[in-house]
Amino acid sequence: MRLPVLLLSIFCGFGLYGQSLIKGRIVSAENRKPLPYAKIQISEDRQVLSNIDGSFQFFLDEGSKKINISYIGYQTLTTTVGRATQFLEVALRPKYEQLETVMIPLENSADVIIKKAIAAKAKNDPKKALNGFHYKSYSKFIIDNQDALLQMKADSTAAAMEIVLNEGRAYLSEKVSEHFYSKSGGEQEKVIGMETAGFKKPIYNILFMSINPFSLYDESYQLYKTEYAGPLAKNAFKNYDYRIIDTTETEKPAYVVYFKPKREKVVAGLEGILYLDTQTYAIQKAKAQLLGAIRLEVNHEYEYFPEKKLWFPVSQTTTIQPGTGGKEVAVFGGTIGLGTVQQKPGVVSTIFGSEKISKNLYLNSTEKYYDISLEPATENPVKNASVYIPEEALKKDSIFWQQNRQMEYTQRDQAASKIVDSIIEAGNVKRKLQIQNTMTTGYYPWGYWDVDLTKIFKFSNYEGIRLGFGGKTSDQVSSHFNLNGYTTYGFKDKVWKYGIGTQIYLDDRSDTRLNFYFSRDIQETGSFKYLKGRRTFYILQPRFVNINFYYNYKTYWTSLEHNFAPGLTTEFRISREDIWQIRDYSFQKNDKTYSDYRLGEATISFFWRPFSEFVSTPQGSRLIERHFPQFTGQIEHSFKGFFGGDFNFTRIGLKIEHAIKQIDQSTTEFILEGNIGFGDLPLTHSFHAYPNSPNREKILKRFAVGGNNSFETMYFNEFFSDRLVMLHIRHQFRPFKIGENFQPELVLVSRHAIGDMEHLERHQGIQFNTLEQGYSEFGMELNKIFSGFGLSAAYRYGAYHLPTFTQNLALIFTLQLQL
Questions:
Q1: Which domain holds residue 684?
Q2: Is residue 617 a contact partner of residue 509, using CB atoms and an 8 Å limit?
Q3: CB neighbour class for 378 (10 Å; exposed up to 12, middle 13-18, buried from 19)
Q4: Is the domain of 350 the same as that of 253?
Q5: Does residue 80 sit in the same domain as residue 131?
Q6: Taking 80 as the threshold, does the pLDDT of residue 531 lie above it?
Q7: Which single residue of 146, 151, 346, 650 could bond 332 by disulfide (Cβ 3.0 to 4.6 Å)?
Q8: Which Pfam families does the UniProt entry name for this protein (predicted)?
Q9: Is pLDDT at 400 greater than 90 in this prediction?
């Protein structure tokens, strides 16, 4: 297998034999500063532009060639390059005479042109100018070895081809899609075919990132996980400087406008050029770059459609290569620096099977648009999801790809598809991806068993050290069901807790699951757990340490989970729960006292993210991009007599989460939650506001770790309610970029709660207050002082203000660690 591929690659290399790679740099002769986007005219129909650092490179087919190098405001230079040219540094001299050749009217300065382009966005942006449109796209995504690629172009020897095979392309995927847009429904995509070399199943978290953003007209420009200020945003002049560097001499001439960030420490920005139509001020073409820890380059191409008098995008290419240090850009949830993934390793580090390959990172994503119609589609096959992948899209043959590829599928691509299997196998890539996917939900894959990391270790003042083991069977056991369970032991309370159950997979695409479960454990009094919502794995659960009011329970339940849409997950559960007290508490009803009781309950819960983007795959829905607001709700009813239940009551909870993220990396978050209970509601099933202050007199003994949306100055067991509303407002300022590894974040927090409780006399054995006068606290956090650790302080004020200063003050450690 290796020999034919090697011979094929060597044969391909002969076509490149004799080419010379010319590299160089263009600077100003006055101050040696680089000249970005200088024009190198190689022939009448071939030219290249310098990068933002003045560098350039091109292949020379002939023995020698005269080239012209020009830049607005500088004298054009003509020089000869040939095979002996190893590096060409060109210093252009300024020319001070009037620049009449550019033919730009005096009033059309760069700022005036940009203002007109911003004002004309409603006519030029396809999403605003059209009621709808649809088109097809072909995309090819490659992670490659840059050194091997250049060596292949420069040298066709067998030794060079061996390098290409052994250390070359490490990832290759292709995708063909239909795209639909309407003003009412937004953007949607149906994948017609997709293939990932080396993987039987596609790597969805790579294929559906924001690699190729559709439009440069938006207020922000998202590339991978980084938001950049849009060069044509409403506040563009606040973030960019502009300069005209050329005009084109085409049938539809364009101003070539250079843009450069002016607030890089505050707002992320790209540096590049816009080709703006001289008549309509629409984008004809664009190029953006970022140099630093990486070299990032994005190229947009547009085509003119005369029937709509509109320029529409037809292709985009994004390239990432190792840089020289400095700026960093988030990629796959991590950052690329010096050619390797740093800080939070993401998929890129997983794909590369060896350190040697990752040091020569070369990533390229190209997307071509075709069969473009600027009218709304008469029929849109995509329902509910932003991206829909039918089962048949994963089973396309070679004929399909030959018919639908919109760019050359090179011999190198063919060689790559044959060798990626061995690279993936050698680098144990599938195992790394398996670990990454399960770890984000709190599990670690271990053969036939996915270990539940939340069950291994906990500590609290009540249980002491709590050690255990739990998890579920993996897909290696069965793809139709899992067996799951746990067992733990508290060394202080000396009690075993355990659970066992099964989950049957009824339908993967809608994530329909049938569950059966039994458990015996303890639960915090007054807590309200939503069945649906994000399963978040916390390395440390701070509130858990100081909770001291629990009750015992033993429960049997069955539930049905179903996604009515990718953004709407639901669960319906029926259960029988036996409860007995740990502390001296009893509930009175009709002159009868209950310390132990049984509940027969039915619960319906939902988690709704209407504005987030999802991909619907045959294996289930996956989140592409989270947007706000999002809603979590639950209705729970206990029936007297159902499964022998003693009480009749209802509990309702609704939580609304919203976040406003600014381009300067500051974020404002809001969480509004309301709970109400009515009927024969025991204290175990009432509500608290998630207090997090231990009941100790001295402030240093109350020093705790900050909770997640908890009231830091509220003492445990101080308040309980059967009607409760909570509001959390959190504003995080942009990070203080003091050093490369020291970027603390200042956060201001305001929390408020109001509640009440009827029939206080029913609750015996414990004293507590109600919240009918409203509770307020203000906090300040300085996070990430050292690694994920920080410090915080909060102060209680208002109606429940306590007599002394220290009673109202809480000092807290903060901890922000992510997997």
A1: 508-531+542-815
A2: yes
A3: exposed
A4: yes
A5: no
A6: yes
A7: 346
A8: CarbopepD_reg_2, DUF5686
A9: yes
Question: Do 612 and 568 sit in the same domain of this protein?
Answer: yes
Phi, psi for residue 746 in degrees, rounded to 5: -95, 130
Q: Give me the amino acid identity at 147.
A: D
CATH of the domain at 515: 2.40.160
User: What is the DSSP track for 758-808?
Assistant: S-GGGEES---B--TT-EEEEEEEEEEEETTEEEEEEEEESTT--SSHHHH
Q: Are 681 and 649 in contact (CB under 8 A)?
A: yes
Tokens of 646: 């003693």
For residue 478, give both structure tokens.
């069965």
Structure tokens at 813: 């450690």
Look up the CATH number of the domain holding residue 26: 2.60.40.1120
pTM of the model: 0.85
Domain end (from 390, 412, 434): 412
Closest alpha carbon to 156 in 56, 24, 8:
8
Tokens at residue 741, please? 């590894």
CA dihedral 428, 430, 436, 438 (to 10 degrees): -130
283 in the same domain as 203: yes
Q: Does 350 lie in the same domain as 218? A: yes
Residue 43: the pLDDT is 86
Tell me: pLDDT of 445 over 80: yes
The predicted model gives 130-151 an average pLDDT of 76
Please count the other Cβ atoms lying within 10 Å of the Cβ belonging to residue 550.
20
**C-alpha of 783 from chain center:** 21
Q: What is the spatial distance between Cα 715 and Cα 140, in angstroms, rounded to a whole number?
A: 57
pLDDT at residue 3 is higher than 50: no
Give yes or no for residue 14 having a pLDDT over 50.
Answer: no
With beta carbons less than 8 A apart as the criterion, state whether 621 and 615 touch.
yes
Q: Please state the length of the chain.
A: 819
* Cβ contacts of 437 within 8 Å, gap of 6 or more: none
User: How far apart (Å, rounded) are the C-alpha atoms in residues 802 and 800?
Assistant: 6
Q: Are residues 72 and 188 in the same domain?
A: no
* 775 domain residue, yes or no: yes
Which range of 293-302, 395-404, 437-446, 635-644 scores highest in mean pLDDT? It is: 635-644
Distance set, CA 666 to CA 219, 241, 244, 529 (Å): 16, 23, 32, 30
| pLDDT (0 to 100) of residue 9 | 45
User: Do 653 and 673 share a domain, yes or no?
Assistant: yes
Q: Are residues 616 and 716 in the same domain?
A: yes
DSSP classification of residue 8 = H
pLDDT digit string, tens, across residues 636-665: 999 999 999 999 999 999 999 999 998 888
- Point out which residues pair with 41 in neighbouring strands: 47, 68
